[in-house]
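Honest question from a wet-lab person: if I give you the sequences of every part of a complex, can you actually get the arrangement of the whole thing, not just the pieces? Trying it with mine:
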Amino acid sequence: MRNQNRPRHSQKVKSDFAIVFDLDGTLVDSVYEHVISWKRAFADEGLHVPGFMIHNKVGMSGRLMVRQVLRETRQRVSLKKMKAIEELHKSYFSRMLPLVGTLPGAQALLDRLSSVGVRWAIGTGGDRKAVAAQLKSLRIPDSVPVTTGDDVAEAKPEPEIFMVAAERLGVRITQSIIVGDSVWDLLAACRGKALGIGLLSGGYCSSDLERAGAYRVYKDPADLLTHLEELGLPAD
Amino acid sequence: MRNQNRPRHSQKVKSDFAIVFDLDGTLVDSVYEHVISWKRAFADEGLHVPGFMIHNKVGMSGRLMVRQVLRETRQRVSLKKMKAIEELHKSYFSRMLPLVGTLPGAQALLDRLSSVGVRWAIGTGGDRKAVAAQLKSLRIPDSVPVTTGDDVAEAKPEPEIFMVAAERLGVRITQSIIVGDSVWDLLAACRGKALGIGLLSGGYCSSDLERAGAYRVYKDPADLLTHLEELGLPAD
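Yes, you can. This is the full assembly:
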């Protein structure tokens, strides 16, 4: 008889640990498209925000990002305008989607985890529509839980997204490995008492990720794939 | 009688040291537009290059960038295709120029240096046409030397661009402060035995810039402006 707690995409669970992946900058190469889309959105509302100030906030929820950027640049706008900026970003980003591909090794890493019996899920702050569009470039089994910003009350750096994702795998967050490219992922991992792993593929540097609590930092999914044993996971 | 060694934009030279500024990511907010333009250019030629791999090479000459990216992603293309990628990048970048503004405090910093008698110049690897287009957003006195990639044989990280820029100010590179946002600027400063200063406004992190030899790292030109004394320069 089938164990209902086991994910359907893997018949043979070989590890007590599960992995929850962030999406943007971790599995798909979308961070720079987000930066430009946010920059355009702010500019349309008369706000000039330098790219680097946006970049180091990608991974936060859209709402938090806008509030933080406004505070940092000492600008104030109405709530209506803040919402308009969020909508503009979504619109600009959807137009850039053709440029967004998977990161090196992303598909191979996910396939390998499934085949060696390590449960995995995706937990991302993006809204359901944008996430669905980006997941088209990856082959994700229907059974893999995908938790988005629309599914939770508290966005990253709160750990709720990762916590819900782990629960859907039937694993506690404290038994999970969280893989992300931004300090917000690692802060969320830290708050959830999960093991945090950083990837450089979102453009953060290793020392920022390490200082934010990353146990290990790899270049991209391909590099992580060659180091599964370092995380105490079966590799084949 | 006028001292011909003194720059025309400042009647009163008060410091033996001069400053040579990089342009992209240092005075103008163009790094993320360069990343997207390169990504599009590579994609048009059938090469998928992740944004972060491009980002950490912005500041190199276009030719070096293309060669390095190809080696890193283990792809080979003809010389003709490499040149086509460079041209495509220029074309895409020129279309994104309306989004490129000055970085916070850039104009105020340059104006202050002129008024307190610190000589300064611009030394950038960009081609003359792109540089001229970007300088439109800044008020640069005609007398300020602007050295571009078209003026020298060896691009960054060779120190030639900065060396020529300093010479045009009548100052040796060893008596110059080089301000840049990338590790290539700092490697060039190091090779030229100049004092290197890093800015975070190109999206590199402080530890990468410090490890590449930055004497100090500031957030952006506005932050550098409030710390001129730290560099042993007159501030008012």
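Two things worth pointing out. DSSP finds ten helices and six strands in chain B. The two ends of chain B are 25 Å apart (CA to CA).
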